[in-house]
Automatic annotation (TrEMBL):
<protein>
    <submittedName>
        <fullName>YifB family Mg chelatase-like AAA ATPase</fullName>
    </submittedName>
</protein>
<dbReference type="InterPro" id="IPR000523">
    <property type="entry name" value="Mg_chelatse_chII-like_cat_dom"/>
</dbReference>
<dbReference type="InterPro" id="IPR014721">
    <property type="entry name" value="Ribsml_uS5_D2-typ_fold_subgr"/>
</dbReference>
<keyword id="KW-0547">Nucleotide-binding</keyword>
<dbReference type="InterPro" id="IPR004482">
    <property type="entry name" value="Mg_chelat-rel"/>
</dbReference>
<feature type="region of interest" description="Disordered">
    <location>
        <begin position="265"/>
        <end position="286"/>
    </location>
</feature>
<dbReference type="Pfam" id="PF13335">
    <property type="entry name" value="Mg_chelatase_C"/>
</dbReference>
<comment type="similarity">
    <text>Belongs to the Mg-chelatase subunits D/I family. ComM subfamily.</text>
</comment>
<feature type="domain" description="AAA+ ATPase">
    <location>
        <begin position="210"/>
        <end position="391"/>
    </location>
</feature>
<dbReference type="InterPro" id="IPR045006">
    <property type="entry name" value="CHLI-like"/>
</dbReference>
<dbReference type="InterPro" id="IPR001208">
    <property type="entry name" value="MCM_dom"/>
</dbReference>
<dbReference type="InterPro" id="IPR020568">
    <property type="entry name" value="Ribosomal_Su5_D2-typ_SF"/>
</dbReference>
<dbReference type="InterPro" id="IPR003593">
    <property type="entry name" value="AAA+_ATPase"/>
</dbReference>
<dbReference type="Pfam" id="PF13541">
    <property type="entry name" value="ChlI"/>
</dbReference>
<dbReference type="Pfam" id="PF01078">
    <property type="entry name" value="Mg_chelatase"/>
</dbReference>
<dbReference type="InterPro" id="IPR027417">
    <property type="entry name" value="P-loop_NTPase"/>
</dbReference>
<dbReference type="InterPro" id="IPR025158">
    <property type="entry name" value="Mg_chelat-rel_C"/>
</dbReference>
Amino acid sequence: MSIAIINSRAQIGVEAPPVHVEVHLSNGMPSFTLVGLPETAVRESKDRVRSALLTSGLSFPYKRITLSLAPADLPKDGARFDLAIALGLLAASGQIPVNTLPVLECIGELGLSGDIRPVRGVLPAALAARQAQRSLIVPRANAEEASLVSGLTIYAVDHILQLVHHFTQQQPLEPYRSNGLTDSCPPYPDLQEVQGQEAAKRALIVAAAGMHNLLLSGQPGTGKTMLASRLPGLLPMLTEAEALEVAAVQSVVSLQSLTHWPQRPFRQPHHSASGPALVGGGSKPQPGEITLAHQGVLFLDELPEFDRKVLEVLREPLEAGHIVIARANGRLKFPARFQLVAAMNPCPCGYLGDPDGRCRCTPELIARYRHKLSGPLLDRIDLHVSMAREPTSLMPQQSKSGITSQEAAAIVSQARQIQLKRQGSTNSQLATNSLHQFCTLAEADRIWLEQACERLKLSLRASHRVLKVARTLADLDAQEIIGKHHLAEALQYRFQNIN
């Protein structure tokens, strides 16, 4: 047969659109024409495929070869189409049968010796292949990653000859069986290791229970970073769907996507990070830190040290849960449902309010320092917590006190279950038009809250966020109706701020 069609997948952001590799052989002067918007790595595939076939003892068809990557208007990049191109040439030249090819998809890079090398973005391709009800051929180094997708038949290969023997029935491949990855998560640091700071620990539990954003303010060494790093250990385990979303994001940026599976991500970019580093971008848009923190925690230490324009790019994804990056050749949508935790000093030197009077910052300097954080950004942070210096204790056993991470995680899990049963989402994700339905208040308490928000000049968004935090506090107490003390505590968190 002089024509063959092989199914493969491109990588566009965190999606894997289908690509049909069409190979046609005709008489004439030997040539190799590749069409379908191939970029440099794809155009070079003809040389890799030719060498791989010849060194493996297979025939390279010396005919007029026309190879089309359809759809023609979808950009193709990377070496992920090498394996599909090689199989197309073998099928079109009659070296392997074509009857089983329509129910298969394949991705992989070919070495000059015929070895099949791993590529990025296998997990999104595996999810799309399952939806298309096809089997998937992948490099063996990617097989464990692809096996995370249940209900998908996977064939893991090391060399092009294994596939030839499989299609010619000389030595059929067995479907890949996973070794299991559920125990690859290292333990989280324990909340009990944080000395004192009981009020901040309470706020951390509230933030975990309702998926609220949190700002910690305090002098250097008060435990802000320690507290933030313990938040992932309080959050519930990822569901299978959430874990696959996280792994899919990691898959498109690294070949080591199974590291710490299925742990919630904890990202801590340096304050010198640029806007594209946070939200993603580039000529070939790649996920940024907010997408890498999807379904996890984004921790911004020394918040005012970030460029103000960089911080402003967080406003839309904090509300929408995704980020859209527009380029001349299209728009890409990346998931960004993350929980923001930030830490800062109260002033440039860090010692404002210290009883020993160590702060020497002028009011103008303090005002300039705080002005780096805009009102709209602070408006999107539900909990503002001030942390004071704790008495020094250098004995590790004596410094451990209070609630452990395991105990706090159980409290958070119980509150999350209440929320999911009631409304199907965390309290921070409640739609505005659903607040009256799920945030039940006594009439007197409603009037009190409205008057308090009016006196404090809160925006409507801030008022709604106060109500959502109060809903979380009521859930922690397992109460259906929000009490006045819940509203008062929620308002307290709003105004333990830096202003």
